[in-house]
Design goal:
By secondary structure, the chain is of the alpha+beta class. It has 2 domains: 95 residues, no CATH class; 86 residues, Arc Repressor Mutant, subunit A (Orthogonal Bundle), CATH 1.10.10. Helix content is 39%, strand content 17%. Strands 2-1-3 form a 3-stranded mixed β-sheet. Strands 4-6-5 form a 3-stranded antiparallel β-sheet. The radius of gyration is 21 Å and the shape is globular. The protein starts with 6 loop residues before the first helix and ends in a 7-residue tail after the last strand.
C-alpha cells in the first residue's frame, strides 16, 4: 500500500488480480493461450508448494518443447529452488520401462472409442502426465502390436515400403473398450 491509500482502495486490486493458479483453466478458455502447462516448485523436501510456474503458449509444439525441457530437469515435473536429492536418485522413483504400461492404460481408458491424429493426441494429453513424446510413440506402437489401437499412416516412403513408426499426421483409432495391459 502506498502512503495516503487506505485499505479499501488496496483490497479490490488484490482480489481482482486473483491467484494465477485459480484462473489456470480460465486462461485457456478465455483465449489468452491455447495451452497452459503447470509445473510445481517446492519450498523444501517436505514438498510444500512454494509456487506454480505456468507455461502459456498458443502452439502445441511450444507446449511440448517446454515440457520436454522441464522433464529433463525433473521427471515428476516438480522442482526445488535448491536440489535436495540427486536427479538420478529421483529418476529411480518415477521412471517406467518401455513400453510404459501406465501410459498405455491411461490412453486406453481416456480415449476409448475415439479417433484422432497423433498431433491432436499430444496436444490434448501432453499437459496432463509425466510422459514425453518418445514415450507416447513407444506406448502407442505397443498398443498397435496388441491391436488395441489402429494406426493409419497416410504418408509414403521413398522405397515404396509401408511406413513405420508414428508421426504427427498419422491417425490413431482407439478400441471401443478399455483393454487390460
Amino acid at each position: 500500500m502506498k502512503p495516503g491509500e487506505n485499505a479499501s482502495t488496496w483490497r479490490p486490486a488484490t482480489i481482482a488480480s486473483g491467484c494465477l493458479l485459480l484462473t489456470y483453466s480460465a486462461l485457456v478458455r478465455d483465449g489468452i493461450a491455447k495451452f497452459a502447462t503447470p509445473f510445481r516448485v517446492f519450498e523444501d523436501e517436505r514438498r510444500q508448494t512454494l509456487y506454480y510456474l505456468i507455461h502459456l503458449t498458443n502452439n502445441g509444439l511450444g507446449m511440448r518443447q517446454m515440457k520436454r525441457a522441464m522433464i529433463k530437469e525433473s521427471k515428476d515435473m516438480t522442482f526445488w529452488p535448491v536440489t535436495v536429492r540427486p536427479p538420478d536418485q529421483l529418476a529411480l522413483d518415477v521412471e517406467e520401462v518401455a513400453p510404459y504400461p501406465s501410459l498405455q492404460t491411461h490412453l486406453a481408458e481416456s480415449y476409448i472409442g475415439r479417433t484422432m491424429t497423433f498431433e491432436e493426441l499430444l496436444n490434448t494429453d501432453y499437459p496432463e502426465g509425466l510422459w514425453l513424446e518418445p514415450e507416447y510413440r513407444a506406448a502407442l506402437l505397443a498398443m498397435e502390436d496388441r491391436e488395441s489401437v489402429i494406426v493409419t499412416r497416410t504418408r509414403s516412403t521413398p522405397t515404396g515400403r509401408a511406413p513405420r513408426g508414428l508421426q504427427e499426421p498419422d491417425k490413431i483409432a482407439f478400441s471401443g473398450q478399455a483393454s487390460l495391459i
